[in-house]
Amino acid sequence: SHGQRDTAQILLMRGAKYLPDKNGITPLDLCVQGGYGETCEVLIQYHPRLFQTIIQMTQNEDLRENMLRQVLEHLSQQSESQYLKILTSLAEVATTNGHKLLSLSSNYEAQMKSLLRIVRIFCHVFRIGPSSPSNGNDMGYNGNKTPRSQVFKVRKVYDVVRKIDVKEMNFTKHAFINQTSHEQEPLELLWHSLDEWLVLIATELMKNKRDSANITSILLKQKGPDQQDATPTPSFATAGTEGRKELSTGAGELKTYDVPGKQEACADCQDVISMTANRLSAVIQAFYMCCSCQMPQGMTSPRFIEFVCKHDDVLKCFVNRNPKIIFDHFHFLLECPELMSRFMHIIKAQPFKDRCEWFYEHLHAGQPDSDMVHRPVNENDILLVHRDSIFRSSCEVVSKANCAKLKQGIAVRFHGEEGMGQGVVREWFDILSSEIVNPDYALFTQSADGTTFQPNSNSSVNPDHLNYFRFAGQILGLALNHRQLVNIYFTRSFYKHILGIPVNYQDVASIDPEYAKNLQWILDNDISDLGLELTFSVETDVFGAMEEVPLKPGGASILVTQENKAEYVQLVTELRMTRAIQPQINAFLQGFHMFIPPSLIQLFDEYELELLLSGMPEIDVNDWLKNTEYTSGYERGDQVIQWFWDVVEELTQEERVLLLQFVTGSSRVPHGGFAHIMGGSGLQNFTIAAVPYTANLLPTSSTCINMLKLPEYPSKEILKDRLLVALHCGSYGYTMA
After folding, report:
1. Helix-strand-coil percent breakdown of the chain, rounded to 5?
2. Using CA atoms, how far apart are residues 476 and 494, in angstroms rounded to an integer?
3. Where would I find the beta strands (DSSP E) of 45-136?
């Protein structure tokens, strides 16, 4: 019961029988439950049949997976042949489970968990083998120069799949098995089945698209060229015999056409997708795990990338029909930017809460379990800082600390104080977030609205500025890693830099609203005959002196014209918002990415990143109402205005923040309340302007003057519906007043 290896050895040498106890628990059960690999080795020496029993235990959900890994890890280290035998046996069991999962008659939840559990164990054993990717050896060979492919080679195909039910084989289309060579990799059988399923579904999808196009063609041909716009849209009605449809033209006349089973085929295809999407996605996840365990850390298997590209349409169909698949099975998206880009629009359409959970699940994957108190292992892991020089002393200790340990937990103690714990950690983050924007360090400057900060293009007056920017990135990365909020807000453009999103001319408004208006005016007007004489060079303030900076090579001699003005505006924007502070951005990101991988943070947009870092601001609706102005025909007592404020009261806190962002471009209320909101030309109250109502018209806004352009909706219900659509789907575009 405690894995006494010597005791087991002595008993077996004396001929002790191997029997279960009165509860049916065997000695092997006890050893595996405790992770006693050495004792399991002894048992197998005397009873070789127990080897397969251990392999079959990988399917038992009641056994702790880490204990099974521990046992198999020990057994695999005994010899090269043992290592290959374990991998081959695990591959066979995984293949059998995968085939059962593809059988629609099996229990999805149980089979899915079983397959992924076995594959995780398989990959763990594979990695610790003599030629694991991490040790830098040739991936084609193990320590004894045995071809790596031999790990998967097994007996004849009928041996590998002998346990699979014949009906299941037929149902999952395994006819190809009879045509395979005498030697096969068992997992390759599973990947082949997966590929066949996806090809089959892709064929059906293409067929339905063609059928749909053919139906449309038939309908259009029945109309005369002059009737196509005037005739009502036709509809199909079942004619009573399969394969024939009655076409109602909307004019009281019925005509019959041969359109064999189009709707049924489409419905059948959708049913197949509904039944198979989750099962196939789980096998895809297993395929990715097996491909990944054969690659060096940080590299995505070329074979898997090719697989996703080949089946791109089907995988997108799965995700569009059930986006939860992304979070449940398509973890590979986070590890390969090329694949992520294909699904990013679908991912970002998922609820913010779901993406947050996915973010932290993968951020903390592989880390030891924590009680979230983050107590250090020993005294050396405590960050000892001085209150009177908290910024510099914190920078010094964090730069010397072990990055991996900081990811697991933070413990802070102020010099000369006894206090420790999460309260001290929160205080440390709070003070540091204020110190980061302390003007004495010249790292950040205030934006035009006075509530957000932007990297200072002249921060080099501080000789350590790049080290400090790197430290600032580390602090924000650590805060996000440990879900600690910081009391600091950046400009929208800086959040974009963190996310790798290109800036645009509208972002200039945060640092220079008047300049942003000028850029907007250039885009909105024909500048051909205005004599502006602009060139692709601009004057920039460098430490109080104006310098001419070309926007591109030879820019001083290139005139801005109606044709190239869009390029000019974009280059000016990049100069003001990116090029002028590129070293500072790079240093910050170097520190930030030590704790937050770029692949994970791109799950969010700039608004959501602000919420992750700084939390949800509290909004006082009464103060908001009291400091709102009305124009263009609206007055405080109008029915639409009353409906509007009723809706605001009903909104969630998150939706109120979205509304504030939508109208003002900021999620924060400045110190002092809504009476202190800044506009493009100084203090500017929140304003609601009347707009004539037309069906489905959405509210719009002009952020430079904090104006909500609210249509005169006929009912509160329509107003609320249109407002929520604008907040959730249209919060990224706005006009410049």
Report:
1. 55, 10, 35
2. 13
3. none
Dihedral sign (CA 397, 399, 403, 407): positive
Report how far residue 156's alpha carbon sits from residue 254's, in angstroms, rounded to the nearest whole number: 61
pTM higher than 0.70, yes or no?
Answer: no
Task: Say what the pLDDT of residue 273 is.
Answer: 77
- H-run or E-run covering 564: none
Cα angle, residue 544 at apex, residues 539 and 548 outer, rounded to 5°? 20
Residues 6+ apart with CB under 8 A from 369: none
613, 688, 591, 597: which is closest to 648 by C-alpha? 688
- Three-state SS at 566: helix
User: 312-321 and 262-292 are packed helices; what angle lies between their axes, rounded to 10 degrees?
Assistant: 110
For 634, which DSSP code? -
| Measured distance CA(438)–CA(444) in Å, rounded | 8
Helix (H, G, I), strand (E, B) or coil at 250: coil
| Bridge partners for 412 per DSSP | 383
pLDDT tens, residue by residue, 21-49: 888 899 899 889 888 889 999 999 999 99
Residue 157 has what pLDDT?
Answer: 32
Residue 465 burial (C-beta neighbours within 10 Å; 0-12, 13-18, 19+): buried
Below-50 pLDDT ranges, the chain: 131-184, 215-216, 218-265, 369-377, 731-737
Gap between the Cα atoms of 603 and 555, Å rounded:
37
Q: Which of 123, 269, 336, 704 is catalytic?
A: 704
Instruction: Please give the full DSSP string across 443-476, using - where no structure is assigned.
Output: -EEE-TTSS-EEE-TTGGGSTTHHHHHHHHHHHH
What are the DSSP calls for 290-303, one per residue? HHHTTS-TT---HH
Spatial CA neighbour of 466 closest among 329, 564, 589: 589
CA distance 315 to 319: 6
Reported for 138-142, long-range contacts at CB under 8 A and 24+ positions apart, including other chains, are 139/294, 139/295, 139/296, 142/80
With vertex at residue 3, the alpha carbon angle to CA 76 and CA 55, rounded to the nearest 5 degrees, is: 40
Task: Specify whether the CB–CB gap between 286 and 117 falls below 8 A.
Answer: no
Beta carbons within 8 Å of 692's beta carbon, 6+ residues apart: 711, 712
Active-site residue flag, 123: no
Q: What DSSP state is assigned to residue 248?
A: E
Contact 149, 185 (CB under 8 A): yes
The DSSP-derived string for 110-161 is HHHHHHHHHHHHHHHHHHHSTT-GGGT--TTB-TT--BGGGGT--S-HHHHT
Identify which of 474, 471, 439 has the alpha carbon closest to the alpha carbon of residue 453.
439
> CB count, 10 Å around CB of 371?
7
Where do you find CATH 3.30.2410.10 in the chain?
616-731
Q: Are 474 and 591 in contact (CB under 8 A)?
A: yes
**Per-residue pLDDT reduced to its tens digit, 405-444:** 888 888 888 888 877 777 788 888 888 988 999 988 999 9
Which amino acid is present at 140? G
Phi and psi at residue 683, in whole multiples of 5°?
-60, 130
Query: For residue 424, which of 466, 390, 462, 459 has the smallest C-alpha distance?
Result: 390
Measured from the Cβ of residue 109, the count of other Cβ atoms closer than 10 Å reads 10
Q: Is 224 helix (H, G, I), strand (E, B) or coil?
A: coil
**CA-to-CA dists, residue 21 to 12, 18, 46, 53, 647, angstroms:** 17, 10, 19, 17, 68
**Alpha-carbon distance 96 to 116, whole Å?**
12
CATH of 616-731, one of 3.40.50.720, 1.10.10.60, 3.30.70.270, 3.30.2410.10: 3.30.2410.10
